[in-house]
Specification:
Elements: E1 2-3, H1 7-14, E2 17-18, E3 24-25, H2 28-32, E4 43-54, H3 55-59, H4 65-76, E5 79-90, E6 101-104, E7 107-110
Antiparallel strand pairs: 1-7, 2-3, 4-5, 6-7
């Protein structure tokens, strides 16, 4: 979760590019958390107009929200320690890195955890 200034900035953070040889260049988001690769086809992201700290509200509408909301609430409680306006979810992926937050230009992102959704 994080605070991101605009949809343009979010798109820039999540953009995956390729070399002339077809090798994938990880997104700025991935590099910031030392992630070599994830399947972009099962990545979901949302940028809200108004930041809030209600976990259920931030995760509502994402795939498997009926499963993941209670699991994240069990970890963090109903209200988060601060307000966020951006959520990035990676499905079929377990983060093994040690970075818990990243500041990228004017964006601030925090790793909130991994939960099973099936």
């Amino acid at each position: 979760m994080g605070k991101i200034k605009s949809m343009e900035e979010m798109d820039n953070l999540l953009e995956i590019s390729y070399t002339e040889d077809g090798e994938q260049i990880p997104s700025i988001f991935a590099r910031s958390f030392d992630i070599e690769r994830y399947d972009d086809a099962v990545r979901e992201a949302e940028l809200y107009d108004d930041p809030n700290n209600l976990l259920g509200s931030l995760l509502e509408g994402f795939s498997y929200d009926d499963v993941i909301i209670p699991k994240f609430v069990a970890i963090h409680g109903e209200q988060l320690h601060k307000s966020f306006n951006a959520v990035i979810l990676l499905f079929n992926f377990e983060y093994q890195g040690s970075k818990k937050e990243a500041i990228i230009e004017s964006s601030h992102l925090e790793f909130m955890g991994t939960v099973e959704y099936r």
